[in-house]
Design goal:
mainly alpha; Growth Hormone, Chain: A; MFS_trans_sf; transmembrane; cell membrane; transmembrane helix; Major facilitator superfamily (MFS) profile domain-containing protein
Length: 420
């Protein structure tokens, strides 16, 4: 699909423009990016701390549960906070609380030893508050960036996740080897403080929207979003895609253990290939529909088609994993990143300003809830050595909803006409 405002060079200029012209967005993005790198390092540090405890291997499952199970409850609580208070203060408060939680581990270590349960408590606090920046940052973007630059802003957020996914664990491993796990936790605590400072330094207020929008819809009508066909259809498609992504998180270690040379190094290369693909996809995401202003149903409908097409390509990439694992992981990352960027820009137009906090929190929480189902589906298949069946299931789970988006776009078009 040809770019509306040029090719990759235009997209690059758009990303540079949004960083150059919006000091507030630049501050928030830099603070968030640094904090994400710290989080990537901390996951490795907490894992290492747990492994060093008696029975550490058996406790890894509990650590993973503490990281993931509180996310759903936290997501339900996050949205109302973002819509009721200035997002700058919510983001800053979240960063300070999580920074204090991370700092508790090195502080207790310095004063006599880390309680056995503390790493799990810290992981649970992280999981509970995880959705605050995940929903708060995109909810703030429409107030900081004009519509023509929202693709670029969303691409920059996606780039941050990709870079953090590559750099965070690698840096964490190096620092643990040189200085120990506690040094990583101190670093992450500092990044949280810096993110809080960046959020408070944003000059433009990010307050809650008025109780009613131009249409006069009452302010508690969160479930009015469920009447938007495009929001529902794209969220269901992404939830299905994330089931396949959850399967991939099990498939990677299994491949490294049973099929690929190098063991842990092979796993690192697979994860690096996935993150590199995500980075490339995020950088290129603005080259299609670059700078699009979603001012009408036609433009929004083209964007919906583009989302469905790249999801179909990502689905085909899951099948490639069975025959060429490194290439498959790279391609999954490459095609999944534009899905995220373009869908997020579309949601920014479809979700009323007064519901952005709750809307993004609800949708991202739903999408984050499905990967565990993928791990449950993949495990028995891989234990039986059925890699081809697992790859085919990943492709079907992610591809069929995308195909439904394409074939059902006429049914979805009336919702696009209502985009503000």
């Amino acid at each position: 699909m040809p770019a509306r405002h040029g090719g990759p060079a235009s997209a690059s200029l758009s990303r540079m423009r949004v960083l150059r012209t919006s000091a507030d967005f630049r501050l928030l993005w830099l603070g968030s990016s640094l904090s994400l790198i710290g989080d990537g390092m901390t996951f490795v540090a907490l894992t290492w701390l747990v492994l060093d405890q008696p029975g550490g291997t058996q406790s890894l499952g509990l650590l993973a549960m503490c990281y993931t199970l509180p996310v759903f409850a936290g997501g339900l609580l996050t949205g109302p906070l973002l819509d009721r208070f200035d997002k700058r203060y919510v983001l800053a408060a979240d960063s300070l609380v999580r920074g204090a939680a991370m700092a508790a581990l090195p502080l207790t270590a310095a004063f006599g030893g880390v309680p056995h349960a503390l790493p799990f408590v810290v992981a649970a606090i992280h999981g509970l508050l995880k959705m605050v920046p995940l929903a708060g940052f995109p909810a703030a973007i429409p107030d900081l960036v004009p519509p023509r630059d929202q693709d670029a802003a969303n691409a920059l957020e996606s780039i941050s996740f990709s870079v953090a996914g590559m750099a965070g664990p690698a840096l964490g491993g190096l620092l643990i080897g040189w200085f120990g796990s506690m040094s990583v936790l101190v670093f992450d605590a500092v990044t949280y403080v810096l993110f809080a400072v960046a959020a408070l330094a944003v000059r433009r207020p990010l307050p809650p929207a008025p109780a009613t929008d131009a249409g006069g819809v009452p302010a508690g009508a969160l479930f009015s979003l469920l009447r938007d066909r495009v929001l529902v259809a794209t969220t269901v498609a992404f939830m299905a895609f994330n089931v396949a992504a959850g399967m991939l998180t099990v498939t990677g270690p299994w491949l490294a253990k049973t099929h690929l040379d190098g063991g842990a190094q092979a796993l690192g290369l697979l994860l690096a290939a996935l993150a590199a693909g995500e980075l490339a996809g995020s950088v290129l995401a603005g080259s299609v529909l670059a700078g699009s202003v979603l001012s009408g149903a036609r433009t929004a409908a083209r964007r919906l088609v583009a989302i469905a097409v790249v999801q179909l390509l990502a689905a085909a990439s899951f099948a490639v994993v069975a025959v060429a694992p490194y290439v498959g992981f790279l391609l999954v990352g490459l095609f999944s990143a534009p899905m995220t960027v373009w869908a997020q820009s579309l949601r920014m137009r479809l979700i009323p300003p007064r519901l952005r906090g709750r809307g993004f929190a609800l949708l991202r929480t739903l999408m984050q809830a499905t990967p565990p189902a993928g791990t449950a589906l993949a495990t028995p298949l891989l234990l039986d050595g059925r890699l081809v069946a697992a790859a085919a299931l990943m492709a079907a789970l992610s591809g069929l909803p995308a195909l439904a988006l394409l074939t059902g776009r006429r049914f979805l078009t009336p919702s696009l006409h209502n985009a503000p």
